[in-house]
Amino acid sequence: MLSSLFNPDSVAVIGASRKKGKVGNAVLSNLVKDFRGNIYPVNPGEEKIEGLTCYASILDVADEVDLAAVVVPAKVVPPTLEECGRAGVKYVVVISAGFKEAGVEGAKLERRSLEICKEYGIHMVGPNCLGIMDPVAGLNASFAASMAYEGNIAMMSQSGAICTSTLDWAEANGMGFSKFVSLGNKADLGENEFLAEFRDDPSTSVIAAYLEGIKNGSQFIEIARDVSRKKPVVLVKSGRTAAGSRAVSSHTGTLAGSDQAYNAAFDKAGVIRADTLEDMLDYIRAFSTQPIPAGRRIAILTNAGGLGILTADACYYEGLELASLSGETIEGLREFLPDAASFYNPVDVLGDASAKLYGDALEIVLKDPNVDGVILLTSPQAMTDVGSIARIVIQKMENSDKPVLCSFVGGTRVMEGNSILVAGGVPNYIFPERAVASMGALCDYGKRRSITYPLPKPVHSDRKMASALLDEAAAKDKKILGLESFDLLKAYGIPVVDIGKASTVEEAVEESERIGYPVVMKVLSPDISHKTDVGGIRLSLMNKDDIRRAYHTMMSDVGRYMPSARITGVQLQRMIEGGREVIIGMNRDVQFGPLLMFGLGGTYVEILKDVSFRLAPLNEKDAHSMISSIRSYPLLTGVRGEKAYDVDAVADILVRVSRLVEDFPQVLEFEINPLMVLPEGEGCFAMDMRLTLKESN
Questions:
Q1: Residue 621's domain is classified under what CATH number?
Q2: Domain edge (last residue) among 448, 474, 509
Q3: Domain edge (last residue) among 574, 600, 632
Q4: Any idea what the CATH number is for the domain that residue 520 is in?
């Protein structure tokens, strides 16, 4: 789709300059150094730049121009794009800044620029970007200091500064790229279009990205899921905190969604999320050079016991398994390692180990069928020949299909070994924990690319009844619905506890007699969200006297705590005993849609925050994963002889809630709290609910 963007026959630089230090000069100079096609500088005030004929306008270029790099003031960009359209240019990289990141007037300029591009069928990168590179094609249409090394990593970044820092780091570490894109404001082309392009690019094996926001969340998940089955996608998303989100808005005008939604989206899409830029760079070094392991069983090979222990600890926290070496491997190691060595995992070849000893041990360990990958550690003793060790590691890896990540720990004494490993395509990390984290990323991807995503089973529902309930609320301008809307749950087959409503004490007695004791009483008020906080709940009411006493004291307490609250009466419900309270909630994320939440329910959910999140739609597998991922999951499955609760029934309700909130986009927030889960096989019941509707247009 974007082949002419990355591999054009001709490039124009509109705003080219002869003055050193100007962006227009840097872009043109970079093209002159590496580009093999025709280059056309455009500047009405110059006749020649860099020995090339300069044109007053793109319209004066007689030949066809595939790509234009635009480096003119923001206010001049729209008419410049108009001329590009008339000249038949199909791709532009707008490097100029001063658009939506600069405020209201800049946003207007950006909208106008996009309108012109759509009118003429132009695809635009930027504005407010560093530019683009394709080292394979010799294209450097950017103002970076130099061309990236050629490699198999496609990188895109919403920050130009992170682009230049990454390029500089990669040059120092011998890492190369197939494509390099500064996204800027993403007015037209964004992460989704480039993901699709990189998926089909034969020179790309790994995709990396720094993003501050995503334009089309559902499309991103669909594309990234397809891409990640073929190639690993490693991504850093900034703006995780409230402070970070504010910085994002001022930087590129991107609206940052909730971090929980991004985590859920990346998980659903098979994307590897890196917490830091350092993590991302570490991971893509491993992905670009090493095979994907078959499992998570890792062997550690070291010449220092302390490093081995630290690495074993890091493997545990990373969720990696220390491989149990086979008897054949252990006996093979005994044949040549000193008696004081450790023949188990971690394998310690001792501080005076020669390069040959290292190589022989690595060869045997790699052949062990119980080993999926190796982390090789070296501490520089006086007798350690780090250069020879590095060379023999490269040699022994040639015929292996298992990843080996090295950590030569030190400074000046390991520099030679690091240089040799980097040149040989073996990642070396200055500290073992970084090697372990990178091995974890390899293993995670090995699992993610094999995940299937079955569609949810159909949910039988009375959508007509649910729609009527919501339409009635909208007609009455009711934005918050509570227990009075239990029928909405019934419409989707969600079991609810028997309830009744009363506006007087005698009606409360009558309803309680009908429902049966014990009874729970809750205040009904559109102004009260958290009833417990104002004395609006009474439990274990066993008879008429309890009902009368509870009614009067509740009205007194609520009136004292919230004297201005509108009270419409009380709600009575059968008290379910012997169950476990959980919560199911939903918040509609601005980018990704319904974000579902699950956790232990009741009054402590906001304090404990032991919850999990997934994006709709949920299938049965998603629902069970959501339930089992909370820390307190063992409380549902039974611990120390306790009974197990009906987790299957909870999973079924999660799927039904997912369908409900997908069917009705006017529901902004939704909560069942508590959902009372009964012992295994006995089901569960919604005890309370609350939902918020969006404003009517």
A1: 3.30.470.20
A2: 448
A3: 574
A4: 3.30.1490.20
Cross-strand bridge partners of residue 55: 42
Residue the block writes with tokens 């990234």: 224
| Amino acid code (one letter) for 388 | S
Q: Which residues contact 222 (CB under 8 A, 6 or more apart)?
A: none
Task: Return the half-sphere exposure (C-beta side, CA atoms, 13 A cut-off) of residue 54.
Answer: 19
Largest Cα–Cα distance of the chain, in whole Å?
Answer: 100
CATH number at residue 327: 3.40.50.261
Residue 136 lies in a domain: no
Q: What is the pLDDT of residues 54-102, one digit of tens each?
A: 999 999 999 999 999 999 999 999 999 999 999 999 999 999 999 999 9
- Does 476 reside within a domain? no
**Residue 17 DSSP symbol:** -
The strand pair at 272-273 and 347-348 is best described as: unpaired
Tell me the residue ranges of DSSP E strands in 5-51: 10-14, 38-42, 48-49
158 and 61 inside one domain: no
Residue ranges in the chain modelled with pLDDT below 70: 241-257, 602-604, 606, 696-697
Intra-chain end-to-end CA distance of the chain, in Å: 38
Tokens of 323: 């491989």
pTM to 2 decimals?
0.89
Predicted pLDDT of residue 603 = 64
Beta strands in 163-252 (DSSP E): 177-182, 206-211, 233-237
- The residue behind tokens 């309270």 is 581
Domain assignment of residue 294, yes or no = yes
* pLDDT tens figures, 238-277: 987 665 555 544 333 333 347 889 999 999 999 999 999 9
Looking at the structure, do residues 590 and 543 belong to the same domain, yes or no?
A: no
Enter the tokens of residue 160: 């130009």
Residue 192 and residue 213 share a domain: yes
Beta strands in 487-633 (DSSP E): 499-502, 519-524, 537-541, 569-574, 580-589, 593-600, 611-615
The structural domain count of the chain equals: 5
User: DSSP secondary structure string, 425-486?
Assistant: T--B-SSHHHHHHHHHHHHHHHHHTT---PPPPP----HHHHHHHHHHHHHTT--EE-GGGH
Identify the residue whose tokens are 């919501």. 470
Q: Which domain holds residue 539?
A: 497-574
CB 573 within 8 A of CB 515: yes
Same domain, 509 and 554: yes
Question: What is the pLDDT, as a whole number, of residue 602?
Answer: 67
Cis amide linkage into residue 674, ω under 30° from 0: yes
Q: Can you tell me the distance from the alpha carbon of 186 to that of 233, in angstroms, rounded to the nearest whole number? A: 19
The 10 Å Cβ neighbour count of residue 563 is 7
